[in-house]
């Protein structure tokens, strides 16, 4: 453990060894914060800590603990004198959540409620919650703003995000001295430009970009594009893809905005995306162009539960947080391929 001068604000990062969490740890350190990771490594690898050390030139405080373990979490709060929490830790596989809803409700809701109980006990005011655009379902009007009605979630996973938002809002409205933002992410992709950390799916990737990079690396025979008959310009689904480092920077901006607020209790929601959509086929073509490599893909039938198109209006985050996405789709796909080449030892 490396000690730092006491002026650094310590930020608890639950799930800090995960894909978005690890990149946010980098952004926090670069912004002068002192991240404290808690992760049970159920869906991440301890080797991520080596990648963080390579980027940052120092170790990051890390507790191997479960966010539902009240005794362990209480001890962490007591030891670390935190000034804020970024809550990433959650089960997030959509398909598995349909098969095992109770596993998802228990883990994702209980961990959030435990944090909300501990924060006032230890005088920790600021909370940034990792939410998702899944709370919008298939929106009737595009693009979506923060005022777009939430529709019934397409999966128990998506529903846990909506319920956690409500739990946080109700806790704040009850007068609890907590200031909280829910960041509704769109589709995070890419990797740190150093290729020291990136997305590390276990087994068959559930997300599009790791499937593309694994297919390009020869680990998968081919990629299937689910549906080419949607009501979009090229027939494939449209998403708002955001570079994971831009998403990481948004958490730093959110923490700063919470810190500036002089109210005791505060709750708000923010869309975090690029503000425009790209189709699945456009994404594949861009990957091929920026990396000079062909991807073996075929089109198949639509996949149940897939939203046809969704992309964000991000004016609120641009205005309130003084934040906006800086990196292009090409940047994200170049970084994702560099990370895959490192994993696969491709020169």
TrEMBL record:
**Which SUPFAM superfamilies does the entry mention?**
NAD(P)-binding Rossmann-fold domains
**Enzyme Commission number:** 5.1.3.2
Annotated metabolic or biological route of this protein: Carbohydrate metabolism; galactose metabolism
InterPro entries documented for this protein: NAD(P)-bd_dom, NAD(P)-bd_dom_sf, UDP_G4E
What reaction does this enzyme carry out catalytically?
A: UDP-alpha-D-glucose = UDP-alpha-D-galactose
**Enzyme class name:** isomerase
Domain NAD(P)-binding per the UniProt entry, residue ranges: 12-334
> Keywords for this entry?
Carbohydrate metabolism, Isomerase, NAD
Q: Does the keyword NAD apply?
A: yes
Q: Which Pfam families match?
A: GDP_Man_Dehyd (PF16363)
Under the heading CDD domains, the entry gives: UDP_G4E_1_SDR_e
Q: Which cofactor does it need?
A: NAD(+)
Give the top-rank taxon of the lineage listed in the UniProt record for this protein.
Bacteria
**How does it associate, per the subunit comment?**
Homodimer.
Provide the family line. Answer: Belongs to the NAD(P)-dependent epimerase/dehydratase family.
Q: What is this protein called?
A: UDP-glucose 4-epimerase
User: What is the source species?
Assistant: Nibrella viscosa
């Amino acid at each position: 453990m490396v000690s730092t001068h006491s002026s650094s604000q310590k930020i608890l990062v639950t799930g800090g060894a995960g894909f978005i969490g690890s990149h946010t740890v980098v952004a926090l350190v670069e912004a002068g914060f002192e991240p404290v990771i808690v992760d049970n490594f159920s869906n991440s690898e301890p080797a991520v800590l080596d990648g963080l050390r390579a980027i940052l030139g120092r170790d990051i405080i890390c507790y191997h603990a479960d966010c539902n373990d009240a005794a362990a979490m209480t001890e962490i709060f007591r030891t670390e004198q935190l000034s804020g929490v970024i809550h990433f830790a959650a089960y997030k596989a959509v398909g598995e959540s349909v098969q095992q809803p109770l596993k998802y409700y228990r883990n994702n809701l209980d961990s959030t409620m435990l944090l909300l109980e501990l924060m006032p006990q230890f005088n920790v005011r600021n909370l940034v919650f990792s939410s998702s655009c899944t709370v919008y379902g298939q929106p009737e009007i595009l693009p979506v703003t923060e005022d777009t009605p939430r529709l019934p979630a397409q999966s128990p996973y998506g529903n846990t995000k909506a319920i956690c938002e409500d739990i946080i809002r109700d806790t704040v409205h009850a007068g609890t001295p907590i200031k909280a933002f829910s960041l509704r992410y769109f589709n995070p992709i890419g990797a740190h430009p150093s290729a020291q950390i990136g997305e590390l799916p276990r087994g068959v990737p559930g997300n599009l970009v790791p499937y593309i990079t694994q297919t390009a690396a020869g680990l998968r025979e081919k990629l299937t594009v689910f549906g080419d008959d949607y009501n979009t310009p090229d027939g494939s689904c449209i998403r708002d893809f955001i570079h994971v480092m831009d998403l990481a920077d948004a958490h730093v901006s959110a923490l700063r905005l919470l810190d500036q607020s002089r109210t005791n209790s505060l709750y708000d929601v923010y869309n975090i995306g690029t503000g425009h959509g790209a189709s699945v086929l456009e994404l594949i073509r861009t990957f091929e162009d920026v990396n000079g490599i062909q991807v073996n893909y075929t089109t198949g039938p639509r996949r149940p539960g897939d939203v046809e198109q969704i992309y964000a209006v991000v004016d609120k985050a641009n205005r309130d947080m003084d934040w906006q996405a800086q990196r292009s789709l090409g940047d994200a796909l170049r970084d994702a391929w560099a990370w895959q080449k490192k994993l696969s030892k491709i020169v």
